[in-house]
């Protein structure tokens, strides 16, 4: 599994993303977040952000949907109360990184320190130690994999994304981009902050949420956090 992980991480940075994304799913279903067939995991990266995350929390509460937020330690440090509020609302926090710098630019010790610092801050401010890690840009360097193992964090990327980080993204474009990969077992990647993307890009993800939830409901699919996605039930964690 470690070899697969390294392949996926290197592949992510190459030009033909669509082809490689399919290859990654074929090689590493657990890494791509493929879970139980009647469940869709909803995940958000780059928060928490006081300017946008509360709006996501409000819409999710209205939809009665809980999700997993892969947060940046630097953002949690700026808004610890918001991070605690997310967990109190039933959402799950995972480790994204301390900042958004590529892990390929860090050595193993720095990578470990970044993930450790973020993990411990999340646990400190929310009372819930995180279980999952998704490094910035989905780049699974060998340092990330080693640190994840040492810190008991399961690496999870995604199987469907909405390209919601671009300046021209709209709720309709997000839904159209997600559609081909939106099925039972999928892990959906969206963003609840624009701190690393086009200003206001998160509005496209926010606007897509009600229809996304409705489509899953129509298809008989539950939507929830990775904790309820059945990744551990497959017995794949032990193979990392
Ligand atoms: Zn990110």
TrEMBL record:
Organism this protein belongs to: Frankia umida
| Boundaries of every NodB homology domain copy | 38-224
- Lineage, broadest ranks: Bacteria, Bacillati, Actinomycetota, Actinomycetes, Frankiales
The protein depicted here goes by the name Polysaccharide deacetylase family protein
């Amino acid at each position: 599994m470690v070899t697969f992980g390294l392949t996926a991480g290197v592949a992510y940075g190459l030009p033909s993303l669509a082809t490689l994304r399919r290859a990654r799913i074929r090689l590493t279903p657990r890494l791509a977040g493929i879970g139980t067939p009647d469940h869709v995991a909803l995940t958000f990266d780059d928060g928490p952000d006081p300017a946008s995350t509360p709006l996501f929390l409000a819409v999710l509460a209205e939809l009665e949907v809980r999700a997993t937020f892969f947060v940046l330690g630097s953002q949690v440090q700026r808004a610890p109360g918001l991070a605690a509020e997310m967990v109190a609302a039933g959402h799950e926090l995972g480790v994204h990184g301390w900042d958004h710098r590529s892990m390929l630019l860090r050595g193993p010790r720095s990578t470990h320190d970044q993930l450790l610092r973020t993990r411990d801050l999340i646990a400190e401010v929310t009372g819930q130690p995180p279980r999952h890690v998704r490094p910035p840009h989905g780049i699974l360097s060998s340092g990330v994999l080693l640190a994840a193992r040492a810190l008991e964090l399961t690496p999870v990327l995604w199987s469907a994304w909405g390209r919601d980080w671009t300046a021209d993204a709209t709720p309709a474009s997000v839904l159209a981009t997600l559609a081909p990969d939106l099925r039972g077992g999928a892990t959906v990647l969206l963003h609840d902050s624009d701190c690393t993307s086009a200003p206001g890009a998160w509005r496209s993800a926010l606007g897509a949420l009600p229809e996304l939830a409705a489509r899953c409901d129509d298809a008989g699919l539950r939507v929830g956090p990775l904790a309820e996605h059945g990744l551990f039930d497959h017995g794949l964690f032990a193979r990392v």
